[in-house]
Amino acid sequence: MRFVSFRSASSVLATTALLLIATAPSQAQTRAETLRYVTGASVNALDPNIPGSTRESFALSMSTYDRLVAFGRKQLNGKWVFDLDKITGELAESYDVSPDGLKLTFRLRKDAKFQDGSPVTAEDVKWSLDRCVTAPILGKAQLLTGSLTSADQFKVIDPLTIEVTLPKPDKLALPNLATVYPLIINSKVAKEHATPEDPWATAWLKEHTAGSGAYVIESFKPGEQVIIKRNEAWNRGSPDKPAFFKRVIVQSVPEPATRANLVERGDADLVVDLQASDVQSLEAKGKLKVVSTPQYNSITFVSMNNQIPPFDNVNVRRAIAFALPYEDMFKAALFGRGAPLFGATWPDGKPLNGIYPFQAPVKTDLDKAREYLKAAGLPEGFSTTFSFNVGQASTAEPMAALVKESLAKIGIKVDIQKLPDAQMSTQINEKKLPLFTEGIVAWLPSTDYFYRNFYTGNQRWNYSSINNPELAAIAQEARFEPDKAKYEEDGRKLNAIHFSEMPQIPLWQPNQDAVMASSIEGYTYEFHRQVDYRDVSRK
Amino acid sequence: MTGLGATVARAGRRLLSSLPALFGVLVFTFLLMRVLPGDPAVFFASGPNAGKEEIEQIRKQMGLDKSVPEQLVFYLSDIGRGNLGRSMMTGQPVLKDLRERLPASLELTFTALLIALIAAVPLGVIAALKPGSLVDHGVRLFCALGVCVPTFVSGLLLIYVFYYLLGLAPDPTGRIDVFTSLPPQRTGFLSIDFLLAGDIEGWWAACKQLILPAVSMALFVIAPLARITRASMLVSLGSDFVRTARSVGLSWQKVVVTYALRNAILPVITIAGIVFSTMLGANVLVEKVFSWPGVASYALDALLSSDYAPVQGFVLLMAGIFVLVNLVVDICYGIADPRVSIG
Prior knowledge:
The complex is a heterodimer. In chain A, helix 11 (about 325-335) packs antiparallel against helix 13 (about 395-410) and helix 15 packs across helix 16 (about 470-480). Chain A is an alpha+beta fold. Helix content of chain A is about 35%, strand content about 25%. In chain A, strands 11, 12, 13, 14, 17 and 18 form a six-stranded antiparallel β-sheet that branches. Chain A contains 17 helices and 20 strands. Chain B is built from 14 helices and no strands. Chain B has helices at about 1-35, 40-45, 50-60, 70-80, 95-130, 135-150, 150-165, 190-195, 200-235, 240-245, 250-280, 285-290, 295-305, 310-335. The two termini of chain B are about 20 Å apart. The mean pLDDT of chain B is about 85.
């Protein structure tokens, strides 16, 4: 008995050794063809349209689904970033915009196939776009910003042609179709899983995909990891061949220091959410490639509630704007990794251009701040709170301490409030916070879009609760302004109002620091601020 | 046999009597989550364009549009049918999430407790045998260090040394290397599943992932265990029966292990039970540092985003485990000391 078991054990060993020898080279090869991307967040839905889906889910859907069109890319200071002005076909082979700007016609690629092999037809496109504007999903609010609101606007001309009709010539209609939500779904498959209560198969599509994208889901563990494998038939990328990596592993690693270790040791290939301090030390070591792009569609600001005293007084807001310790905050919070929005000089006191976000002529000037406080009738200062959410603590905590210190010098006593994320969003929604810091992002960063969404109306994203009829009117008018010069003029007016009213104080645009193995190429800063796995390749 | 039957019957009674407490925990957590400031609907409707409509929709989806008493009735009837609700965060049923994550936490906690016991009991015994000696002080110093270094610090240190500097440990990302294929799931304990599947290589890979987090957790609990072993060993070594045993010339081993240690082990078992329950819930930092897909980090994430269902499910699970652990501790008492019976 003993002898037999010994033999079997040794044969197991021998087989293992043989297997090891046999698999070693091929495993090494798969590692080179695999992208391991680590992130502090996680994917929680396979359809980004599901309310509550995370940014990682958005990024994943870019690879598992195609859209009609996609953003091109351009170089900005030597780094690749998405290009809002260059819209190329993805499932569409070509598109036309009618001279009056009211009709968009898309001709689909003849060779485009869904992952199950069936061809992509105009019917599928119509069903998917109908779903986006009809079903109770996130796409609805997004497409609204491009005047896409009703299923009647999408018309099938022939199996490979679809026409989109607009009520007004809206500049943002076409870019909207390149955003995350209007993905094109295999309608035959989705309809099989639709129920009378759920005609748009949202429940099924949350856990399954039915698209034509560059990658197929191999395994999906919500909150832990997603593994996707290449769709060999996909050819919508720029060089007309499938995506580079055969496999992509998207793995959640909550601890930022661990993520930094992983990428430094070469076990992970790419990470975009490290702490600024770690990025700085990794960059100094020089072993890895660090691509830092100012997130030019996002802004971090200090906001004041313009309806709550004393911040309803414009002079108090101006006092704060001249009392913030900009340079110190920029260094302490971001290690200077970003583009500052303070410290500009406006020679004639007027905005330099009509682009938002703009660099404002504010700097730390305590004497000026005291003057403004006096003008507001509060020479002795006052007490208030400064809030930020736990999720941003690594940057906001040092910032808050500096704000407290600096405002104390002009007599404003600040209590720092660190709020759990859900509590912070609730308080913002209820307009209860007097003074706080937040960040905003716009997928389609145009001046009027920023002003309409973040500075008008009694709604959640109007952080400062500003109610300025002139600003609202100009922003609304600018939306449909076809003349570029006039649009620029409107932008200048808006920026001037922003500076004189000072509803909130833009601080900076933080860098997106993508840290990657030196063999990784092609990384592009995308509008959704995540990695598009189709962009990257290995040398 | 009758002894065993009686123990089972008593255990059953014990379980029944804990039901009211479990129910209390259920209702209390439910109310607590609703009292906490923070509206989950607002938090989860945070897409770039989510407005009032989206918030209302999520509220409806989570059942928050109804009054609190109504929600409680729905919740209780769901629990009765074994439905713990759905997590907004992962998008999965809470029961499924917990079922997948609990084995990960249990495996880690069991291993850590085992390491801690293996280290702590001998340390405590040695310290008790020579109180005041250099060895005793050495043990005290080690315990003090273990307690005063928080688990995430020791975890990060271990990662730094064994993974980053020496490269001995695998990357600290969860239970198994991403490139290793998983065994068919039977128990959910990877180290056991690999053995059942006969995959020694996989088993070793899983063990390697387990060692660092288990050690960093164990370091933290060695102190209470070793201290309590030392204290109760001192009492038992100084007692009459040990003196008698020594005086009749029994071997050293028999005196220390059979008589002194067996009598001293009761408080150690009690503490081990408590330590186990606390570790299971409180190992969130270790889980975060090692990206361990366990229940504690799951519950923390849920709490931060006010995701009601997972938090409630987690508390219920912990309460249930606490009841079970206490029961097991009581049964262990009976084995260690037949005079003790659970009532």
